[in-house]
């Protein structure tokens, strides 16, 4: 926290008073040291000293944040990660305050060797020494550039194309016959090189005489072969025209010759592998991202009355938690409650192709039954007298959530993403290039929309909503937002995206009562999922628990079905928990020589009931090929933005951006207007965020860790002359307090400014899913093994994936800005 600006000039006085604050003669010493300071200022100084001396419990982790060697440093039972500079400050703080205090924490975080501090200092020096130039130099621009990867782009070719240069004559209407040459060749197309002085246009028909081939072979051609120009490229003063055969005239002899010629010479002259290489890269990046995306896609179809209803969802380890929040006391998933007919009709009436809203919700448990409540932002605005009641009461519940839901159109044709290999490459390629089965296409026929649900809850947001004052007498009126148990929602088929699952064992979704006892609590809980080696528990109220603490679990309901195992007082070790300490991950705690009764029982339970239990990693049960088809659809309709963290040796880079070809306001502001097809990650990498935001986060994570979330606010001025003027960026964790956050947002809502609040979810990756791209890699290796190795190295270097979610609407609504102003801001980005 930054010191109060009103007393910034008295920093030296405060430093002198720190060691004596709290001593009996403090007031006398203060009068001596600060005798001529006005009384109001003295009061503020006292308040500041009181704040600085307050005990601090925050754990400090400087890994990746400072220029120094970080090591373990334990104090008061808490292990910090500090460098030599920080340890000196810490010990000095103990002498000054007598304990670990808030002032010590702030001094460590503001040390001179902190990357953030160094960056701010460098910025000040640069501003002082720079002339009145407003533009960043070219090196500053290029170091933030990112190459785009458009998901779903395959560049499929019907046949192999061989790199082959030979002389030809080209007949161009009104221009006559021109000497030219081919650069590559296939049976149904070619690419030709022309002098740039000759102009051809896409869609134009031309004729080609293969004079180079006719000198050596009998082609049986009486007229030039007719082609249509489909695309043009300018390189090095030459014009390259991509052409396809019109087939207006049958030339079976020539076609058969070209087929034999290419098959016989493709190893000698090499094949044009450009499209296959691009597709391998795209597929590889897709398969890193889609199994880790935090949004849950739900596919919808219209009912007979026209209302949309959900039919299927595609899950992974990072988004399945949303479904778990909707499991009732009978272990039935009730996610379909979210998609009520009136709610979906209101969403469909919103303007634009992508239709978004925010949904707030909570669960209430009474007499062993789980009741679900939810409301959109618009629904709460229609009942203003209940808005504060819902948000204040709901945010205090153990299961409280905020979802962003975004709806976009889709159609069954998106399900067909064939290999990039032509059918002629092999029989297997021909087989794999076939579209989905008739049964799958029939299933997809009515699906017209996909809704992406993202859990954007955070502890910071919960604290804000918890401060809302409301009338408890009105809580009973919240039943208008309750989902009635006598009207069950439509069934949603759950499928799992297929990928290389590196987990050691399968987890199963099941709710049963557990009695848990720890060092400082004894409370009932319910399981969210379990395996032979551990489980995840959900508590109604927060518990006092710490990592590596051993809990004793009793399983009363499960004890009823076994007399062989004693399910009482079973030791489980705490692995992790959420910030609210209501959801806890446990693993079996095994003492040497003692058989763990819980592990043995769970192993037997799973083996005997595997067909009945629902695996958390169950993939595509039911219709074969359906999960793959849905995966292809979301690859081309995902509304989030992905960025990739590469690690080569000890160096990390962030220079690759993944997205689908759909409306995306964030991409619009990242787009490099000068080049049109490149993007600049300046707002995500400035301020040394590569190290402090991404690399430091990755170092804290294991491969199976849940994504770590962080928020960043961006103020964007489109007409500013340079990147540093266009973007003002600040991490939410770096704001002094909530009021400072609100001021930043308020200043970003000016007429010529756009506000973006981004949720950043960082996941650590494992090895690439090479099975998914094996056919293309093998094909590239066959003709250019060096290129295949480069591709593999690029994909193996991916160390992390970042999922970027726009949470601007929720943030503006949380801080109480008028609905009209929020709507204006959201509409402005559509016309940016």
Question: Could you describe the 3D structure shown?
Answer:
The chain has 832 residues and is α+β, with helices and mostly antiparallel strands. It folds into 5 domains: 5-121, no CATH class; 162-270, predicted glycosyltransferase like domains (Thrombin, subunit H, Beta Barrel); 296-496, no CATH class; 508-615, predicted glycosyltransferase like domains (Thrombin, subunit H, Beta Barrel), CATH 2.40.10; 638-828, no CATH class. Helix 10 packs parallel to helix 27 and helix 26 packs antiparallel against helix 27 (785-796). It is globular. The model is unreliable at 130-137 and 617-621 (pLDDT under 50).
Quick tags:
7-stranded mixed sheet, PilZ domain-containing protein, 8-stranded mixed sheet, alpha+beta, 832 residues, 5 domains, globular, 31% helix, PilZ_domain, Thrombin, subunit H, 26% strand, cyclic-di-GMP binding
SSE topology:
Blueprint: H1 11-17, H2 26-33, H3 39-53, E1 71-75, E2 78-82, H4 84-97, H5 102-109, H6 115-129, H7 138-142, E3 145-150, E4 162-163, E5 167-172, E6 176-185, E7 189-195, E8 205-209, H8 211-214, E9 225-235, E10 238-245, H9 252-269, H10 274-289, E11 296-302, E12 308-315, H11 320-324, H12 341-348, E13 355-366, E14 369-376, H13 377-382, H14 384-394, E15 400-409, H15 427-432, H16 438-444, E16 449-455, H17 459-466, E17 493-496, E18 508-509, E19 513-517, E20 522-530, E21 534-539, E22 550-554, H18 556-559, E23 570-577, E24 583-588, H19 597-609, E25 614-615, H20 626-635, E26 641-648, E27 651-659, H21 665-670, E28 679-680, H22 682-685, H23 689-699, E29 708-716, H24 723-726, E30 727-731, H25 738-747, E31 754-764, H26 774-783, H27 785-796, E32 798-806, H28 808-814, H29 819-828
Parallel strand pairs: 3-27, 12-17
Antiparallel strand pairs: 1-2, 3-28, 4-6, 5-6, 5-8, 6-7, 7-10, 8-9, 9-10, 11-12, 11-16, 13-14, 13-15, 15-16, 18-20, 18-25, 19-20, 19-22, 20-21, 21-24, 22-23, 23-24, 26-27, 26-32, 29-30, 29-31, 31-32
Helix pairs in contact: 4-5, 10-27, 26-27
């Amino acid at each position: 926290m930054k010191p109060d600006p009103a007393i910034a000039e008295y920093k030296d006085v405060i430093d002198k008073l720190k060691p004596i604050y709290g001593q009996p003669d403090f007031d006398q010493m203060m009068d001596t040291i600060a005798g001529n300071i006005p009384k109001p200022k003295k009061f503020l100084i006292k308040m500041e000293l009181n704040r600085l001396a307050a005990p601090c419990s925050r754990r400090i982790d400087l890994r990746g944040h400072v220029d120094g060697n970080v090591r373990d440093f334990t104090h008061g039972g808490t292990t910090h990660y500090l460098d030599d500079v920080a340890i000196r400050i810490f010990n000095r703080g103990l002498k000054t305050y007598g304990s670990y205090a808030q002032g010590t924490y702030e001094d460590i975080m503001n040390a001179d060797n902190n990357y953030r501090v160094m960056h701010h200092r460098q910025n000040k020096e640069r501003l002082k020494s720079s002339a009145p130039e407003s533009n960043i130099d070219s090196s500053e621009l290029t170091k933030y550039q990112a190459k785009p990867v458009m998901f779903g782009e395959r560049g499929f070719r019907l046949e192999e194309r061989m790199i082959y240069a030979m002389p030809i004559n080209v007949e161009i209407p009104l221009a006559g016959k021109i000497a030219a040459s081919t650069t590559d060749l296939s049976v149904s197309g070619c690419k030709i090189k022309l002098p740039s002085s000759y102009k051809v246009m896409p869609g134009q028909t031309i004729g080609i005489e293969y004079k180079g081939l006719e000198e050596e072979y009998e082609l049986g051609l009486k007229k030039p072969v007719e082609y249509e120009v489909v695309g043009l490229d300018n390189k090095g003063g030459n014009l390259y025209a991509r052409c396809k055969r019109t087939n207006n005239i049958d030339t079976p002899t020539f076609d058969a010759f070209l087929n034999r010629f290419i098959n016989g010479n493709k190893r000698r002259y090499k094949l044009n592998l450009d499209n296959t290489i691009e597709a391998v890269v795209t597929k590889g990046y897709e398969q890193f991202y889609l199994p880790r995306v935090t949004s849950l896609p739900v596919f919808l179809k219209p009912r007979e009355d026209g209302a949309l209803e959900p039919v299927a969802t595609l899950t992974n380890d990072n988004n399945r938690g949303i479904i778990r929040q909707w499991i009732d006391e009978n272990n039935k998933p009730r996610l379909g409650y979210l998609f009520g007919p009136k709610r979906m009709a209101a969403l469909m009436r919103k303007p634009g192709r992508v239709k978004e809203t925010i949904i707030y919700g909570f669960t209430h448990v009474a007499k062993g039954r789980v009741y679900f409540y939810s409301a959109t932002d618009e629904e709460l605005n229609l009942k203003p007298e209940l808005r504060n009641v819902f948000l204040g009461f709901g945010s205090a519940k153990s299961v409280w959530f905020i979802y962003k839901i975004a709806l976009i159109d889709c159609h069954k044709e998106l399900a067909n993403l064939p290999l990039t290999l032509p059918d002629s490459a092999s029989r297997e390629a021909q087989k794999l290039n076939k579209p989905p089965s008739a049964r799958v296409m029939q299933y997809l026929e009515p699906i017209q929309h996909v809704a992406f649900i993202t859990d954007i809850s955070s502890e910071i947001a919960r604290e804000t909503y918890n401060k809302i004052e409301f009338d408890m007498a009105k809580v009973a009126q919240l039943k208008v937002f309750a989902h009635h148990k006598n009207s069950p929602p439509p069934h949603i088929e759950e499928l799992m995206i297929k990928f290389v699952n590196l987990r050691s064992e399968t987890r199963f979704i099941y709710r049963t009562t557990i009695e848990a006892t720890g060092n400082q609590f004894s409370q009932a809980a319910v399981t969210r999922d379990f395996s032979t080696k551990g489980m995840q528990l959900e508590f109604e109220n927060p518990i006092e628990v710490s990592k590596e603490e051993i809990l004793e679990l009793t399983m009363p309901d499960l004890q009823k079905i076994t007399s062989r195992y004693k399910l009482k007082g079973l030791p489980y070790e705490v692995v992790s928990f959420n910030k609210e300490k209501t959801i806890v991950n446990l693993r079996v705690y095994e003492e040497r020589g003692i058989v763990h009764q819980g592990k043995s029982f769970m192993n037997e339970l799973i083996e005997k009931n595997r067909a009945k239990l629902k695996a958390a990693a169950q993939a595509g049960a039911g219709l074969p090929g359906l999960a793959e088809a849905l995966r292809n659809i979301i690859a081309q309709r995902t509304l989030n933005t992905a960025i990739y963290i590469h690690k080569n040796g000890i160096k990390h880079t962030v220079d690759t951006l993944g997205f689908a070809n759909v409306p995306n306001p964030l991409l619009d502001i990242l787009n490099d207007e000068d080049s049109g097809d490149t993007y600049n990650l300046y707002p995500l990498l400035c301020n040394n965020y590569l190290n402090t935001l991404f690399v430091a986060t990755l170092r804290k994570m294991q491969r199976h860790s849940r994504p770590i979330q962080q928020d960043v606010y961006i103020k964007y001025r489109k007409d500013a002359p340079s990147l540093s003027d266009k973007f003002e960026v600040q991490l939410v964790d770096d704001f002094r307090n909530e009021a400072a956050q609100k001021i930043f947002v308020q200043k970003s809502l000016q007429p010529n400014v756009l506000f973006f609040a981004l949720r950043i979810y960082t996941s650590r990756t494992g090895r690439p899913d090479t099975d998914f791209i094996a056919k293309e890699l093998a094909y590239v290796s066959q003709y250019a093994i060096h290129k295949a190795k480069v591709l593999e190295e690029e994909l193996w270097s991916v160390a992390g994936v970042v999922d970027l979610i726009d949470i601007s609407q929720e943030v503006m609504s949380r801080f109480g800005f008028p609905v009209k102003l929020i709507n204006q801001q959201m509409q402005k980005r559509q016309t940016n």
